[in-house]
Each structure stands twice: as C-alpha cells, then as structure tokens.
Amino acid sequence: MAKADLPQIPERLSFRIGEASRLVGVKPHVLRFWEGEFGRVRPQKNRSGHRLYSRADLDLLRRIRLLLRDHRYTIAGARALLQAGDAAVEQVLAGPSVAGSAPPADSALAAAQRLEGDLRGVRADLASEIRRVAAAREEALFWRGEARRAEAALAIAVEHMAEHALALEEIVRRS
C-alpha cells in the first residue's frame, strides 16, 4: 500500500488501535511493536488502558511504514533517520520508493544512505549494550567484594568460636 493508497485521516483528536492500524495500513500488533522500537511513538492510554493515537502519532506511523515497507529501511536505519530530523525523512520520502519498482539510477547512493542510517542505529544499540554490560560488571564486582568480606567475617567468627570452645573445654577440665 503506497502513500496514495492509504485512507485519509478523519478530523478527530484520537483513534483506537484498530482504527489506527487501518489508517496506517498495518496490523495492530505491528503498531504495538513499533512503540517499543521507535521512542517517538507514544500513544496516550485511556482509563481502561486502551491506546489512543493522535493525528501526529498516525502521521509518524505512516512515515515509519513508508520508510520500512516502501523504501526498505531497516528498523535501525529508520530510527536513525527519524532522529536526524523531519527534513531528512522528507528528503527520503520525496524520492522514489524501491518497493515494486526497478532500482533507481542513484540506488548506490540510496543504499549508502540506508547503510549509514543502519550503522548509526547499530552504533547506538552497541553503545547502549556496552553501558548495560559495564553496569552489570560493576554490580558483579560489588557483590564479589561483599562475598569476600562475608567469607572473611565468617572465618574470623569460626576462629573465635574455636577459641571459646577451647576455653570452655579448659574450664570443664579444671572443674
């Protein structure tokens, strides 16, 4: 479904997930998945916990759909392009889509731009993972130190108990 094939967004303030999925051209589970992948997609929730998408949310979701489906961006590449700003997204969307068409003459440039976006996304994901691993390592080192301190305290306690046992045996022997 190309951009022209999508139904027009009605003049309303909010849309439930079924309506939003129809207007974006994807299934509801895809919208929920994209919420986790793209930080800017944050629908409101009503009192009963149902998602309510605004017109701005639908516009963003349609852009994501076009980047992923028609322009064949990866999620990481689309995420990086969206972070680069609306001008960068509009520039890509203004160009020809690659879905169902012959490769454009400047396909090498488009592929390089997609790869650059993908690499930015991978770099961000890698940096996040490195921070997570470093935090886990620090926590492991902390608990290893705590275990060593507890082991040393236990050894001292056992030594004291042995000394007290010897003292008690001496007292019993004398009496």
CATH topology name:
Multidrug-efflux Transporter Regulator, Chain: A, Domain 2
- For the largest sheet, list the strands in their spatial order: 1-3-2
Distance between the termini: 99 Å
Proportion of residues in helical segments: 55-70%
Shape label:
elongated
**What is the H/E string?**
EHHEEHHHH
Tell me which CATH architecture applies here: Orthogonal Bundle
Number of strands: 3
- The pLDDT mean sits at 85
User: Would you state the CATH class?
Assistant: Mainly Alpha
Tell me the fraction of residues in β-strands, as a range. 5-15%
- Total number of domains: 1
Count of DSSP-assigned helices: 6
Structural class category: mainly alpha
Catalogue the unreliable spans. none
CA-based gyration radius: 30 Å
Biggest sheet overview: 3 strands, antiparallel
Helix-strand blueprint:
Elements lengths: L13 E3 H8 L3 H10 L6 E2 L5 E4 H16 L4 H10 L1 H9 L12 H68 L1
Antiparallel strand pairs: 1-3, 2-3
Notes on the structure:
With 175 residues, this protein is mostly helical. The protein has a single domain, classed as Multidrug-efflux Transporter Regulator, Chain: A, Domain 2 (Orthogonal Bundle), CATH 1.10.1660. It has helices at 17-24, 28-37, 55-70, 75-84, 86-94, 107-174, and strands spanning 14-16, 44-45, 51-54. The radius of gyration is 30 Å and the shape is elongated. The model has no long low-confidence stretch (mean pLDDT 85).
Short description:
The protein is mostly helical and 175 residues long. The chain has six helices and three strands.
